Amino acid sequence: MVAANLTRLEHPEPKVVMQGVSWQTYKTLMSEVGDDRSWRISYDRGILEIRMPQEEHEEPLGLLESFVEAIADELEIEVRKLGALTLAREDLTSAVEPDSCFYIQHEAVVRGRKINLQEDPPPDLAIESDHTSSSLNKQALYSALGVPELWRYTKNMLLVYQRVEGGYEQCDRSLAFPFLPITEIAHFIAQSREIGQRSAVRLFRQRIREILLREN
């Protein structure tokens, strides 16, 4: 029996927060439910948050993933997309599942490996599509786990953060893709509602191609 205080928060995005959850209880829960689930978790020193994503959350996320993949194709580089990979470290008693994550700079290092953050580097990029706010300080979790770059899509705009000592600093350039026109991302996502998702991705790919041609 799990001894925990349960609090339900009234938000459009269903969310449950449990306090007093030991690391062992968290690990047992994750082992029993497995990876075939729609909800995502964040865990920080005894506090477990369970969140059920909604349509408003998933659609921008899928487009951001497609944008990263389009950039990789234009650059002719490999990336490893691992979706909501559970990023956990027992020594920090912390875990978080990003909405999506990518290995970019370190793709070759972890290619084909089962990720273990005790031995492997964290993902180079984590993506959060924030329809509602988290009860936990997720930026602090990502920083503690060593994720160098974080994208947050919130209030119809993309915010990019780079890891610095003590947390994250919002930047106007992506660490992985310095040429990325960050301020234009929201426009492509908005366009998808009018012209369709794949059409928006094709337009984005064309824009990246133009930028790369100009830089070369």
What attributes does this structure have?
216 residues, alpha+beta, tt1808, chain A, six-stranded mixed beta sheet, 6 helices, 12 strands, 34% helix, globular, disordered N terminus
Please characterize this protein's 3D structure.
- The protein is α+β, with helices and mostly antiparallel strands and 216 residues long.
- It has helices spanning 23-33, 55-75, 107-110, 138-145, 185-195, 197-215; strands at residues 5-9, 15-19, 40-44, 47-51, 80-81, 87-89, 94-96, 100-103, 125-129, 149-154, 157-164, 167-171.
- The protein has one domain (54-215): Alpha-Beta Complex (tt1808, chain A), CATH 3.90.1570.
- The protein is built from 6 helices and 12 strands.
- Strands 1-2-4-3-7-6 form a 6-stranded antiparallel β-sheet, covered by helices on one side. It has a 6-stranded mixed β-sheet with strand order 5-8-9-10-11-12.
- The chain is globular, with a radius of gyration of 18 Å.
- The protein starts with a strand and ends with a helix.
